[in-house]
Design a protein that fits this description.
Blueprint (H helix, E strand, L loop, with lengths): L2 H15 L8 H13 L9 H16 L5 H4 L4 E7 L3 E6 L2 E4 L7 H13 L11 E5 L5 E5 L9 E5 L8 H6 L5 H12 L4 E5 L5 H9 L8 E5 L12 E5 L13 H8 L6 E4 L7 H8 L7 E5 L3 H15 L4 H11 L2 E7 L5 E13 L2 E15 L5 E7 L7 H5 L4
Parallel strand pairs: 7-11, 7-12, 8-9, 8-10, 10-11
Antiparallel strand pairs: 1-2, 1-6, 2-3, 4-5, 5-6, 12-13, 13-14, 14-15
Helix pairs in contact: 1-2, 1-3, 2-3, 10-12, 11-12
Length: 405
């Protein structure tokens, strides 16, 4: 009998023994699995390692995320992509590969999806086919169901490291230079408003977590996210806010815009918006221009300059304002733009650190502080380059006020 058929038969026997009228604990489920396995004489021909693997897979299929569980627990896995029940891809140590295994049925995949969304009080179905969720370990999950997804349920899981990445680790990976790291440390402590831009998978959230280490511990910080994934470090006075979708039980939607407005009444020293992607940009700019210095956010863009252009468009999505007024607000509110990139050798690096110096003749002016310069490739195909210093700050008012100039 093939392994998959054996596993399916054993799971059915375990399910027949389980009492679904009461809430079974994990220990009780494991005991039931042990009883079933002990009663199977044919398992004696299998090595101990195979029997242990079979027990874990049975438990994962009943109480965890089935075949995904082993990858969710693997610290070397950064991304899991499910394109229907048979096409599963995993990014491990920066390399993407297709798994030979798949879910045994579409119904099993849908069960796993419902288990994920139920864990964070969200709903996904044909009427509401797109949802963002998270796993208990903090991994971010995006789910797209039929009828929007034509090739079956699509699940994308972004797994974050159990031990948050520090600036020291980024320096070891040559993602940033020591000079630039020390420079950014001073800017964070001096309460410069910082916007982090980059493409998908460039490390924006990770870099925001890293910069949070430089925030003084006595400050009150409020984070606002669609789906909570920030891992701000060593901040005792931390308030975490998360949006909520409307549901069939009558709970109304709570948007990022509402959370930003509410946060202003919580006496924050700094407000950190996990990612700005829509009309909430106008509310974020209001935070930056109303005394909440040191605030930070991230956004998708191809360069630092493009990030500011995207910010203009997002503001105009939420409010009709003259373009000149929008650009003046951005130039006044945003102090520093840090742009990250994922290069062709799969490495993540800081590519630009630029200062927003003002708005002249209707155009936002940028002052490059650091720019990454590529110098070639080594024998292993890794990109060789340096983050070069280009100049100093033109607006040092906050550094002087903090005594750090």
């Amino acid at each position: 009998m093939e392994y998959a058929e054996l596993k399916r038969e054993l799971r059915q026997k375990v399910q027949e023994r389980m009492d679904y009228e009461k809430d079974l604990s994990d220990e009780e489920v494991e005991e039931t699995i042990d009883e079933v396995l002990l009663g199977q004489e044919r398992l004696a021909v299998y090595p101990v390692e195979v029997r242990r693997k079979l027990k874990k897979e049975l438990f994962d299929s009943l109480r965890r995320l089935d075949i995904l569980q082993i990858f969710v627990e693997d610290s070397s896995v950064t991304e899991i992509m499910i394109n229907g029940k048979d096409n599963i891809f995993v990014e491990q140590d920066g390399r993407l590969s297709k798994l030979e295994m798949g879910f045994e049925s579409l119904e099993k995949l849908q069960d796993v999806i419902q288990q994920i969304v139920a864990g964070c009080n969200r709903v996904v179905n044909e009427a509401s086919p797109i949802v963002d969720a998270r796993l208990p370990n903090g991994s971010r999950v995006n789910i797209v169901m039929n009828p929007v997804a034509l090739n079956g349920p699509i699940v994308t899981i972004r797994r974050f490291p159990e031990n948050p990445i520090t600036m020291e680790k980024l320096l070891q990976k040559n993602s940033i230079s020591l000079e630039a790291a020390e420079y950014l440390e001073r800017l964070v402590k001096a309460k410069y408003n910082i916007l982090i831009s980059g493409g998908t998978g460039s490390g924006k959230t990770t870099f925001l977590n890293v910069l949070s280490r430089y925030i003084p511990s006595e400050e009150r910080i409020i984070t606002i996210e669609d789906s909570a994934e920030l891992q701000l470090q060593e901040l005792p006075n931390l308030v975490r806010l998360e949006t909520r979708n409307s549901n069939v039980e009558g709970c109304r939607e709570v948007t990022i815009r509402e959370l930003i407005r509410s946060s202003l009444r919580m006496r924050p020293d700094r407000i950190i918006v996990g990612e700005v992607r829509g009309a909430e940009a106008i509310d974020m700019l209001q935070c930056l221009n109303t005394g909440h210095d040191g605030s930070m956010s991230t956004g998708h863009a191809n360069s630092g300059k493009d990030m500011l252009a995207r910010l203009e468009n997002m503001v105009l999505m939420g409010m009709e304002l003259p373009l000149g007024a929008v650009r003046a607000q951005i130039a006044s509110g945003v102090d520093i733009v840090v742009h990250l990139g994922r290069l062709r050798d799969k490495s993540r690096k800081v590519l630009e650190i630029q200062e927003v110096v003002g708005c002249e003749q209707g155009e936002i002016k940028l002052n490059p502080l650091f720019l990454f310069e590529e110098m070639g490739e080594d024998r292993q195909g890794n990109i060789v380059g340096r983050l070069q210093r280009k100049g100093g700050l033109l607006r040092e008012n906050k550094l002087k006020a903090a005594g750090l100039s």
